[in-house]
Amino acid sequence: MKRLILNLLRQIHVVFRRRALPDRVAIYGHELGPEYRRHFKECIEHLLSLGYETVNPRQYVASEGPKKRLFISFDDNFRDWHDTLDMFDELGATCTFYVTSGVFANRSTIAEQRAFMERIRQPSDRETLTVGQLQEIAKRGHTIGCHTHTHPLLPDLPRDKWDREIAHSKEVLERLIGAEIQDFSFPFGMRRDFNSELEAYCRSLGFKTIATGISGQLYQKTCQPMRIHRTGLKSYISLSENIKNLQLDARIYGALFGRSVIG
Ligand SMILES: [Zn+2]
């Protein structure tokens, strides 16, 4: 039922609220298995052929920079990110990987990794990155962002746990890759999953950007560094349908409900 309603909403937006591709396009995904990888490759190739240049989150929001910017990102530590590095090299694309610092395959128990996969609603046998793989991703020119320590629902978290989930996570990642972590994406990604108190806390830690997962918001008049809205790329629809999703102007829906207009 929920999917039917979302499909209907998306269709209404395709018919009435579809515009030309915006100059700033932010896309995100999760697992990068072979089928999903193919979709990402097609989409990135298409956008690069239109003149977009890949950028990190800070470059995405900067006042100076390329006219057409493509911010590609992934959340949730999937092992197959590492298998996709050659593909990104071939494309000449750099990405941002938002990492949950407490679930590395070689630094956490199987039970912790399974609990994490269940929390993010993925099959519990999915493998997470090792620390060595994370370090190689960073060495190959990609940006590493923070996505908390264990992926909790942040607004439900008592204030005394924020340091453990966010400040500590930032420090762990900085130690592992030997560079400052300046970018954050909050777990679950919809408006209800974050708030202004958490934003102020993240600013105080030195984060420069915060990414959401609210699709259909790429037409904001001014791009907010603390709310970079990314549109999810889907593995079960064609390139042309994914491109349509990037063209949807769902600002009214987003302002009313704070959620994605696509399922
Ligand atoms: Zn996540």
Summed up, what is this model?
With 263 residues, the protein is α/β, with parallel strands linked by helices. It is 41% helix and 13% strand.
Notes on the protein architecture:
- This protein is α/β, with parallel strands linked by helices.
- The strands form 2 sheets. Strands 1, 2, 3, 4, 5 and 9 form a 6-stranded parallel sheet that branches.
- Helix content is 41%, strand content 13%.
- It has one domain: Alpha-Beta Barrel (TIM Barrel), CATH 3.20.20.
- The radius of gyration is 17 Å and the shape is globular.
- Helix 9 links the parallel strand 6 (183-185) and strand 7 (209-212).
- Zinc ion binds at residues 75-76, 120, 147, 151, 187.
CATH H-level homologous superfamily name = Glycoside hydrolase/deacetylase
Share of helix, binned: 40-55%
Q: Terminal Cα separation, in Å?
A: 12 Å
Instruction: Name every ligand kind in the structure.
Output: zinc ion
Would you list the SSEs in sequence order as H and E?
HEHEHEHHEHHEHEHEEEHH
Q: What is the rounded Rg?
A: 17 Å
Whole-number count of domains: 1
Summed up, the helix count is: 11
CATH class: Alpha Beta
> Strand portion, in percent?
5-15%
Major β-sheet annotation: 6 strands, parallel
CATH topology: TIM Barrel
Structural class: alpha/beta
The total strand number stands at 9
Mean pLDDT: 95
Model regions low in confidence, pLDDT < 50 over at least 5 residues:
none
CATH architecture: Alpha-Beta Barrel
Large-scale geometry: globular
Per-chain topology:
Elements lengths: L1 H15 L7 E6 L4 H16 L3 E2 L2 H5 L7 E7 L4 H4 L1 H7 L4 E4 L10 H10 L11 H9 L3 E4 L15 H16 L5 E3 L10 H10 L3 E4 L15 E2 L1 E2 L6 H8 L4 H7 L6
Parallel strand pairs: 1-3, 1-9, 2-3, 3-4, 4-5, 6-7, 7-8
The structure holds zinc ion.
